[in-house]
Amino acid sequence: MEEGQWRTARRLVREARRVxxxxxxxxxxxxxxxxxxxxxxxxxxxxxxxxxxxxxxxRDPRTVLEWYAWRRSALAACRPNAGHRALARFFLRRxxxxxxxxxxxxxxxxxxxxxxxxxxxxxxxxxxxxGAVGRDRCDGCGTRFPAEPLxxxxxxxxxxxxxxxxxxxxFGEPLDAEVLDRARELAEQADLCLVxxxxxxxxxxxxxxxxxxxxxxxxxxxxxxxxxLTDAATAAVRGEAGxxxxxxxx
Length: 250
Description:
- The chain is α/β, with parallel strands linked by helices.
- 39% of the residues lie in helices and 16% in strands.
- The chain has 2 domains: 3-33 and 79-130 and 174-249, Rossmann fold, CATH 3.40.50; 41-76 and 139-168, SIR2/SIRT2 'Small Domain'.
- Strand 7, helix 9 (207-214) and strand 8 (218-223) form a beta-alpha-beta unit.
- The radius of gyration is 19 Å and the shape is elongated.
- The two termini are 18 Å apart.
């Protein structure tokens, strides 16, 4: 780790009044979270772009819901790692939410609940830009439910009868405007944006660090490799989030 970058990153974290953290798949890879293309068996004959779309859900809901049931079972064996936990402790101490994630695995939420114990986990609960696999949402009225095992019949909403589907943003669907507005507001108000485990190429999430920069703030990047955002960062710390974040934030 380059010592000058590390010292700068530590100073920026220490001096920042308002911090936002944007996380991507890199932080969860350390927890063993499988990617779209890690699935075996039946799913090898499908591309994710063929399953995770509104069109596929309408055409063949059973297959799409079975794929998401597989993803839920795979995630059940994963645990928040030291990076998730360090972020949870950091925002619990600050007493204000500032965590935005592109991940749908729910590990930030689990870390927040576990680290908070009997206290409120709200300050460390993430804004989930792409939703969460562990929840259901009615495709008709939008009501959200805890996920339930997939049975013989397709799951239906008790209020309107619509199909219950995973509460995630499918390919071709827009992000929830209210969720995105909350994330943008945090980014514009922050004087430091921590960008962790993301290549920063998927928009609109990739625009959040730039919003902090344009407002006069700084970017600290934590990643195992160089990204398109590295040149814009005031400090770029190389390493896995589970190793870097406890030392950087605790």
